[in-house]
Amino acid sequence: MTASNPGAPVAVVDEAGSDGPVTEADPGRPRTGRSSGVGAPVAVVGGGLAGIAAALALGEAGLPVTLYEARPRLGGATHSFARDGLVVDNGQHVFLRCCTAYRGLLKRIGGTARVRLQDRFDLRVLTPAGRSGRLRRAALPGPLHLMPALASYGLLRPADRLRAVQCALALRGLDPADPGLDRIALGEWLAAHGQGAAARRALWELFAVAALNIGVEDAALGPAAMVFRTALLGRADAADIGVPAVPLRDLHGTAAQAAIERQGGSVRLAAKVTAIEPGPVIVVDGERIDASAVVLATPHRQAAHLAPWDAAPDRNRWAGLGESPIVNVHLHYDRPVTGLPFAAVVDSPVQWVFDRTRAAGVRAGQYLAVSVSAADRWIDEPTAKLRAEFVPAMEQLFPDTRRARLADFFVTRERRATFRQAPGSGALRPAATTRWPGLYLAGSWTDTGWPDTMEGAVRSGLTAARLVRKRLTGAAS
């Protein structure tokens, strides 16, 4: 499940807790004037959330912009496809209440009413043995809002609950920006703070694996501290969970294209950029096109291929970020089997389950999507193997599935869902600027200060747009 990201289910939130978008212009009223006097449009290369955010912010600032996307759609890692009358998302994407940049993007493209956001963080945690836990925030200020839930969490022994509270307070004291945390493994730190294997499985993995798309033992402490400190241990409403109520292609892709074009911008789909040259000039399907500036908003491997060496001499290091996969298992039952909108799971191959029945347009039965992050174990397994593992696992979690007929079962795989957020990865993430004054980088893999999530992607696009605007118009904000 990708949270705010293309890859992970839980997006991280702004510690300040602002409900307003991080932006340079008023998102409420598109600007189509070209008062800046800029000639050639700004070229945004890549139509994922980073590129969309950059194009919209530039258009709002009155700058001409053209967005180029090699695929026949916008949305990047957040997209949908049709299957036997269903509209299926490639993976489950989740955001939190205080994902201010992402929520600002939704406002820009008219998507605020097309998502569902909890009134209060409330998470059911299931086990194959039939035991369950619940984490629900209390009506207390942060960080006290989750302490009663931790103190009564039924999947931990009483002694482990106390140690979990103590560990949470220690996490809150960390500075995620400290580069030293990038060299420490989360699992090592948790063990040093009294968190045994059972506590890691039943509590810390629920959020770390989902947000970082990597196992607790292998994750870097820095981004993990960002997740826990800001999402769960900061403002009380920070972790309220939001999910799309419509297919991602409608929430992001088509809506974003329409918004960019309403502002006077241009979107070119199925347009492959093959080179960036001094000027700057971009080469699109063999055509050389002048640009006033270029925002390179592709995944890190494509960016390393396109960024000229003299603009980004460290580009070969970006490959060290690697990739981490996500697998989504889709099950369509002929009848309802659970009343939960979503749930987390421990001690099972199932990690998170989401009811996608209404969003996918299912008219009969119930359609559930299982999101499995850090899915190295499953990414190359055949569908038959996954069916043999996950169908019985779902029967253990939801007994009503045993009496239901499985009308459809299929799997979607994102081999490069996120970069691998292991120790040392933070030092490999580049800034938005390059050595060419007219070329800027965007993407959730850049140095946003956030994990690889949808929120990080949008923030990177806004940062690149702000730098372009400053260069072309002299505006500092």
UniProtKB/TrEMBL annotation:
Among InterPro entries, the record links this protein to: Amino_oxidase, FAD/NAD-bd_sf, Flavin_amine_oxidase, SQase_HpnE, Zeta_carotene_desat/Oxidored
Q: Which residues form the Amine oxidase domain?
A: 49-468
Record's Gene3D superfamilies?
A: FAD/NAD(P)-binding domain
Give me the ranges of the annotated region Disordered.
1-37
- Keyword entries, A-Z: Oxidoreductase
Q: Which coenzymes or cofactors are required?
A: FAD
Q: NCBIfam families under this entry? A: HpnE
Protein name as catalogued: Hydroxysqualene dehydroxylase HpnE
The lineage is:
Bacteria, Bacillati, Actinomycetota, Actinomycetes, Streptosporangiales
